[in-house]
């Protein structure tokens, strides 16, 4: 791949890293647990790579491995988002509506 | 054209992920954060499916469906199991990354030129982090589920061993760069990664697992980044980096809450030193019935409830809510003192009590409660131990020394509910239980609280 | 230029934008003025473009314009950073050392 | 190889710029922030000089030196002139971007294929923003320096005109895309950009210039971004975007401090409506000498000093510091009440008083002072007007209605120092000056305060 491409990837990497720090720096304690399950779901972004691999028709082994990867990531995504929302539903202020 | 559409989807997805994290860090916007996350992930997957390279959708669909089918029940676990759930999820994530890396390697192995140095290194890192996360997360889940001994397991010169293995790993990467087609070096790498995961967790006490999970989360993110470099996919890089840095900073925050240094968590083998010490002095407990407890509570005007891991284990939160209602109805001022690291996950108690419909603004933080502890008539400790252990203030040799705690010992009287004389997660004795003004009510938290409730309602308490 | 290149530039743009928001969101009032002069200095990053243009030998007109641009940007950079520092030097706590 | 080195420099520079902003937003780390900024800029320039395309360094060096030579004196301006300085700097920045854009266009005009649609649009935006910033910033500087009437200047259906011009601008861009070699369209674009800058500022009152400057700052940043897209330079894009978003958010913050809506600032023609109203009722002033003021201050036990733009104009901060010292020595409790928008720049007063060696933690914010105003014996208003104008609380029709103010009128007595009966920046009368318990001491703030000082020291005051 071109050198420029590599460097732009590095740029993107650094900037995204900064954002992660900045955004989380002052998260309220209340939300540490939901935050962890949400980020675990986002980390399943690897599904992108898995799908690509599973889709381009390669030998069975590759496809199988890729398919397993897709399944595993999807499990994360689904359970991660669902459980996070389930937890957040429970937080409510006194005046807030009952869940 | 399609290419642009894909990139557009990816750009949107990236933005949504950032917003998801941003919104999730404030209670009021948190749920919107989840929505953003879901939308982002949808955009990401949709964009990916557009790739012209994808010719065969069968397997993808099958896998997506399967994932959903497994995922839904996984999201229904009891809240006490949330940490294990997250750990398991990370294990899956690690597996996925590892598999993709391996598959990619095996494909490119036969195509000379594909495996440039840059790519080889990227793949190596991807596979290392991926499989390391897999085994590490599984270990963490095991320790949290207590199927693996939660006590830190150490062996002589472990650091030496670790560094040796690391050296071997680097060596094989170098060899792999020299001749990418030599798959056995790759195999070695995979094997080492799996071992690392285990070695990383073994010496860490179960009490530190949440911190470890946050850290593994950051590894999973970095693994995704590596994959992004391999596939030249900016979405993978951004999302992964977001994850990597947020996971890292979160684990730091958690260390601070327990005032432990980061290295101390990773290599400190927390919780073993003092198992010896624990054997030391054994005080006498003053044990009491639920009726005694009920009586004390009735005659109190200021009560503080300190929930801990025990409440989670016995799912007592709903009973506790009832108790809160009964007492407040009788005009007794009841406060909840929630310690930041009570339970097994940050905010664990908040989540549970919220589940029991306790509005989150009636939970007080440690800092607010401690000052007026001396004016409190009764502190009711429900399955909490380390977080109310005065040793953190007094005993310099104690491993939890310096950790901010809830000063239950400074209240006029204290009622502690637990099942046995066993220590808490840090594995150390708790002087609080031996104090004159402390009454122990042994039993499962849920039953005991139920008993107190019945006693208060004047029926037959289960406590005698 | 390649489409990929354009998109990576857009990625970089968006991420950097987010960072700007996040970082400034909770800046203390005390520092609004220094912040403005600092950012004005940073905005002089355009000097990069000017230098390139002034360096590749083009017709005199181009070079002159570019040179003017370099000079203007440099003026910003120098005065911007100097004055920011001068202002910040003045802020001090009671116990703080005198400037 | 060189290419990599350049990119490396740029990456470092980007990181340093982020850190610069990050650190500058906290007083303790602020100066480190400046260092990071300087380092970043150095890395950026160094990296750029490495480009192999650069064959002739003569002009560059000359320009760099010239810039430094002009820059150093510009950084020595009195602090009251800081806003103008920033405006001027932005004008320079805009000029630079505009010139580069123009030059680039003229180069590529002859090389068919170079001016792709994407590039043409990018250049158009670059030039528009650049030249708009140039004239806009010059106007702002003029209004701050009061060489241009600070009152908002409006004309009938100005919005119509603006949109018309905008339409023409877009039109010429379209034509330019169709045939990039047609330089006259480009010329039109430049002309329009210059006009926009003027039109943008004319209807905005001088009091809003700081907000406008923050906004122009963000435009300058975006112009740099556009340049980055033209030159495919990621450093330009990141630094520009950082600047663009931070400038934008800052202007929003400042609007909030004056509780004005953003659109209201941009199109509200703030400060004209009430010039009429101002003509209305004219109360009578109770004027006094510096000796009277001194006497009142001597006999007070609680004094609050409210500095405003006037103190800045007359550079009275050092005398004010002396006054503070003298009074506190006599055991009088003196507080400074600093209004967020006092002066002409956010934090303007803080900077000035800091310059006078007044530790910044003895300046109280409006919110802290207002509650106990009724217990204050004397409020000394030094060249402040709008920020102590009760109309903001009482008169719904007043343009500053709703802006949080310092309740000087609620104190037992008030001494106001100003030169004349002229209104403040908002151009409206101030009932505070007509109140029974308000004494006016007319004259230049510096001399008056000096007079009070001498009177306090028992010498001949300059006040009679
Ligand atoms: N929350 C976090 O994020 C986090 C992160 C890292 C580490 N940790 C660690 O986790 C610990 C949390 O402290 P903690 O006080 O909440 O919990 P703890 O110290 O682990 O004590 C829990 C107590 O509850 C009792 N218990 C267990 N099951 C029970 C049941 N069914 N009914 C009644 N009692 C029961 C146990 O005694 P019996 O077995 O005798 O019943 C035990 O003493 C701390 O050491 C903290 O450092 C937490
Ligand atoms: N700080 C910011 O960031 C910011 C941003 C946007 C808008 N503004 C606007 O700026 C204004 C600031 O309010 P302010 O009360 O500080 O200033 P002001 O309302 O402009 O009043 C300044 C007063 O000082 C007097 N003065 C001027 N020169 C003087 C001298 N040499 N000696 C003594 N008195 C002198 C003037 O009266 P004479 O002419 O009679 O002496 C004038 O009444 C507000 O309208 C605010 O909205 C500020």
Task: Tell me about this structure.
The complex is a heterotetramer, with 2 copies of chain A (99 residues) and 2 copies of chain B (464 residues). Chain A has helices at 3-25, 32-43, 47-55, 60-90. Chain A is mainly alpha-helical and 99 residues long. Chain A is flat and about 50 Å long. The model of chain A is unreliable at 94-99 (pLDDT under 50). Chain B has 464 residues and is an alpha/beta fold. Helix content of chain B is 59%, strand content 7%. Chain B is built from 18 helices and 6 strands. Chain B has a 6-stranded parallel beta sheet. In chain B, strand 2 (333-338), helix 15 (348-355) and strand 3 form a beta-alpha-beta unit. In chain B, helix 5 (117-145) packs parallel to helix 7 and helix 14 (317-329) runs parallel beside helix 18. Chain B is elongated. Mean pLDDT of chain B is 87; it is low at 270-280 and 460-464. Classes of the chains: A mainly alpha (99), B alpha/beta (464). Chains C and D meet through helix 1, helix 2, helix 3 and helix 4 of C and helix 1, helix 2, helix 3, helix 4 and helix 8 of D. The structure holds NADP nicotinamide-adenine-dinucleotide phosphate (NAP) (2 copies).
């Amino acid at each position: 791949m071109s050198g420029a491409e590599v460097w732009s990837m590095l740029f993107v990497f650094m900037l995204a890293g900064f954002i992660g720090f900045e955004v989380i720096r002052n998260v309220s304690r209340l939300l540490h647990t939901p935050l962890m399950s949400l980020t675990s779901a986002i980390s399943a972004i690897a599904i992108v790579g898995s799908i690509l691999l599973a889709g381009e028709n390669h030998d069975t082994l590759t496809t199988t491995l890729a398919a397993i990867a897709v399944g595993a990531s999807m499990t994360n995504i689904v359970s991660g988002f669902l459980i996070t929302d389930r937890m957040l539903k429970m937080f409510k202020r006194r005046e807030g509506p009952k869940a | 054209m399609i290419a642009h559409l894909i990139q557009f989807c990816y750009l949107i997805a990236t933005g949504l992920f950032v917003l998801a994290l941003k919104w999730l860090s404030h209670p009021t916007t948190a749920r919107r954060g989840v929505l953003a996350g879901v939308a982002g992930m949808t955009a990401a997957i949709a964009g990916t499916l557009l790739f012209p390279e994808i010719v065969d959708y069968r397997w993808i669909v099958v896998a997506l469906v399967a994932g959903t089918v497994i995922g839904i029940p996984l999201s229904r676990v009891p809240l006490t199991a949330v940490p294990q759930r997250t750990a398991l999820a990370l294990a899956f994530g690690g597996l996925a990354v590892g598999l993709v890396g391996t598959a990619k390697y095996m494909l490119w192995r036969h195509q000379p030129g594909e495996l440039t140095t840059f790519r080889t290194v990227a793949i190596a890192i991807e596979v290392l982090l991926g499989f390391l996360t897999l085994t590490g997360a599984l270990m963490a889940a095991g320790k949290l589920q207590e199927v693996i001994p939660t006590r830190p397991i150490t062996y002589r010169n472990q650091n030496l061993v670790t560094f040796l293995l690391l050296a071997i790993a680097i060596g094989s990467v170098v060899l792999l760069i020299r001749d990418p087609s030599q798959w056995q070096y790759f195999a070695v790498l995979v094997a080492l990664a799996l071992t690392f995961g285990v070695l990383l967790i073994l010496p860490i006490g179960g009490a530190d697992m949440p911190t470890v999970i946050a850290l593994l989360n950051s590894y999973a993110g970095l693994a995704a980044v590596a994959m992004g470099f391999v596939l030249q996919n900016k979405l993978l890089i951004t999302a992964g980096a977001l994850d990597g840095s947020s996971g890292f900073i979160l684990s730091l925050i958690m260390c601070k809450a327990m005032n432990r240094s980061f290295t101390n968590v990773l290599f400190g083998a927390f919780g073993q030193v003092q198992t010896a010490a624990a054997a030391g002095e054994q005080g006498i407990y003053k044990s009491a019935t639920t009726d005694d407890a009920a009586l004390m509570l009735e005659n109190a005007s200021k009560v503080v409830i300190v929930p801990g891991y025990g409440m989670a284990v016995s799912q007592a939160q709903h009973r506790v809510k009832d108790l809160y209602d009964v007492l407040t109805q009788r005009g007794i001022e009841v406060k909840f003192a929630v310690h930041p690291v009570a339970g097994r996950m940050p905010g664990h108690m908040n989540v549970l009590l919220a589940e029991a419909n306790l509005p989150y603004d009636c939970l007080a933080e440690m800092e607010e409660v401690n000052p007026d502890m001396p004016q409190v008539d009764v502190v009711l400790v429900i399955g909490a131990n380390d977080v109310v252990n005065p040793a953190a203030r007094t005993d310099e040799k104690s491993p939890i020394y310096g950790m901010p705690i809830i000063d239950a010992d400074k209240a006029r009287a204290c009622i502690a509910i637990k099942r046995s004389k066993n220590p808490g997660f840090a594995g150390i004795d708790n002087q609080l239980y031996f104090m004159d003004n402390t009454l122990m009510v042994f039993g499962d938290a849920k039953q005991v609280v139920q008993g107190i409730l019945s006693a208060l309602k004047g029926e037959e308490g289960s406590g005698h």
